[in-house]
From TrEMBL:
Record Pfam families: DUF3669
Chain ranges passing through the membrane: none
Protein name in UniProt: DUF3669 domain-containing protein
Top-level division of the source organism's lineage: Eukaryota
Organism: Fusarium albosuccineum
DUF3669 domain ranges (all copies): 308-378
Region named Disordered: 1-35
Coiled coil: none
Length: 414
């Protein structure tokens, strides 16, 4: 059985001579994924057979499809047997400043800083805390969700690294341990039924079998690129992977996904990040993933199947509220820079397509509505800033289009 400490504690350190069993770790990760998918299939019942695969995926990604909360095996009185061997950390993704690891069966992930990014990870932690607090403070639950963040771990925190260093996969010189780390809530991957459709629809035919069998594709989160369409007749990428999958607007439309609702949800989220958390949102991500596992108290209620999650705050800047009236122009310029330098999650003003214009208007209207609600209780000198931000975004896009720079031009990232 896998070795664990009491709930809430850190993992057991390996004893002298105890081998880390990465095969058992991968096996348990696969087993837990299969069990989650089995529970979803039981929930959907006849719908799995009665409607087309694409229609089922459209419903699952509608964000309003409710499924019965079923406890995970770790909450059950008769959990499935776990593989023998020492269960360690398994890499499930990467970001600019670090690698992300799960320990199968745990509800946390560990983000470990790359060399030279220790300070960025502390910035990530502090901004993440501010955004979680801002979302939690909302009277009505926002449509997007932010994973809980638990702690920042210094590279010099000997006790934590003594307990955990040996649980990581074989290290190499480009990624030495110990390092800075932070722990946060695991965002569960999209269900297999969705992953399979992505592969069937968007993976080159000669690569599909490899994509279906690759264990890396279990770790599927889909970036919601409302501001990008693929070029017409653009060939499928040769290196197809579902980790951090870039789901472009035309693909979402092809799958009949509720992109107007996505635009509204992201507009609401950005307003909370700007005016409640006082964070600029530079380089954050909006991804589709599964809803969080229910707690034992929540298993009697229905819950959503999927959710848009907001994550990655390592390049964000926070400001004091007084900056809003002492240096309003500088603040607006920073927010506009962060908006356009981000990956293309946001709809853009002045698109060529009428449908894309509806997305921008939906995003804009919800951003302004939520901003007004948040700022109603704050200094009135802040009240005009959300409209100034939107107008500045429109002005910048208009000028860049007139210069022939194209939609969503980014000055720094290209």
């Amino acid at each position: 059985m896998m070795r664990t400490k009491a709930a809430g504690g850190s993992p057991d350190a390996l004893g002298q001579g105890d081998p880390l069993d990465m095969e058992a770790t991968d096996q348990l990760s696969q087993q837990l994924d299969e069990e989650r998918n089995d529970r979803l299939q039981q929930n959907l019942g006849a719908a799995m057979k009665q409607i087309a695969h694409s229609k089922l995926v459209s419903r699952l990604l509608s964000l309003d499809m409710m499924v019965k909360s079923v406890p995970s095996p770790t909450q059950s009185h008769t959990p499935s047997p776990t593989p023998s061997g020492i269960i360690g950390f398994r890499s499930i993704g990467f970001g600019q400043c670090g690698l992300i690891f799960e320990r199968p069966g745990r509800k946390q992930v560990v983000k470990v800083a790359r060399p030279g990014f220790h300070e960025a990870l502390l910035i990530d932690y502090e901004a993440h805390q501010a955004v979680v607090a801002a979302f939690t403070a909302q009277k009505d639950n926002p449509e997007c969700r932010v994973p809980q963040v638990f702690r920042h771990i210094s590279k010099n925190e000997q006790e934590w690294w003594q307990d955990n260093k040996s649980l990581f996969p074989k290290q190499h010189s480009s990624f030495p341990l110990p390092s800075s780390a932070l722990t946060s809530e695991r965002i569960l991957p999209l269900p297999k039924v969705i992953r399979d459709l992505f592969i069937n629809e968007f993976c080159p035919e000669h690569r599909r079998q490899d994509a279906f069998s690759s264990p890396l594709n279990r770790d599927c989160l889909a970036r919601v690129y409302l501001g990008r369409r693929r070029l017409p007749n653009q060939p499928a990428p040769m290196n197809f992977a579902l980790r951090n999958y870039n789901l472009c607007l035309d693909q979402m439309v092809q799958l009949d996904l509720p992109v107007l609702f996505y635009a509204i949800a992201i507009g609401e989220a950005l307003a909370i990040i700007h005016w409640k958390a006082n964070v600029d949102g530079y380089d954050i991500e909006y991804v589709l993933g599964s809803e969080a596992e229910p707690t034992s108290e929540e298993t009697s209620r229905k819950r959503r199947a999927t959710r848009i999650w907001v994550l990655d705050f390592n390049l964000c800047t926070r400001w004091e509220e007084k900056v809003g009236w002492k240096q309003p122009q500088a603040l607006i310029e920073q927010l506009v820079l962060a908006f356009f330098e981000n990956d293309p999650y946001y709809p853009l003003p002045f698109p060529e397509d009428e449908f894309d214009e509806q997305l921008w208007l939906a995003f804009k209207d919800e951003y302004l509505r939520k901003s007004k609600e948040i700022l109603a209780e704050k200094d009135e000198r802040l009240h005009s800033l959300p409209k100034k931000f939107i107008k500045a975004c429109e002005s910048r896009e208009r000028e860049n289009l007139m210069k022939g720079l194209g939609h969503g031009h980014r000055d720094h990232k290209g």
